[in-house]
Amino acid sequence: MAKAKSEGGVMELVKTVFWALVIAGVFRTLFFQPFWIPSSSMKDTLLVGDFLFVNKMAYGYSRYSCPFAMCPISGRIFGSDPARGDVAVFRHPANGNDLIKRVIGLPGDTVQMKEGILYLNGKEVPQEPAGIFEEVMEPQGPMRGRPRCENGVVGDGAICQKSRTVETLPEGTRHNVLNIESSPGLPDNTDVFTVPEGKYFVMGDNRDNSADSRIDPKAGGVGYVPAENLIGRADRIVFSSAGSRIWYFWTWRSDRFFKAIE
What predicted TM-score, i.e. pTM, was given to this entire model? Predict the structure, then answer.
């Protein structure tokens, strides 16, 4: 009798674990996709080592995000169009990698950078000084990359600085952008881009350290992002670790747990 009860208890545990995994798998497939921040292109909104879940239903399903056999060959089903200012995860149009940037230009918009200032549809997007972003010069994340600094070359352990401003988009969305250096050409100065129908113009908040829509894919950039390449919207950071391994608890950034993405 005792043996039968023991075996029954084990079977119930196995069933519980099995269904928990099934539910988690369905939840991930249908609604959310995990995403680690591997690079510094979205600082200081997103830091290397931030972990978040991407809302796959925000923009509907495409051939890159749809879990069903009936997914569209092109375009999207369900969902809504991205809003200017959204932080979106998308499939790179050329190499197929998943990237994260901010949606800046909508279909039909004109976008230009002049002396580090963003212009949308011919109008300057206002920026307000917001102090200095500081971080320690050290290897960051599993890729062990080191940050670039506006205050020149600094050694390990020293403070790396970047000027920070708050940029306000036409609809009122406000977010931080960083500056490292002034350049007579890309990325601070560009031609006028006219965003084609069905595509989007994206940029990193760390403006001098982001290969985004300002740069042609043939030159290592992103170019315009087709609507069908959108995977979802990033709304909240769930967890953050500054170290090379997630279990290095002394590198956890507890102030970023469940932090809303602006």
Answer: 0.84
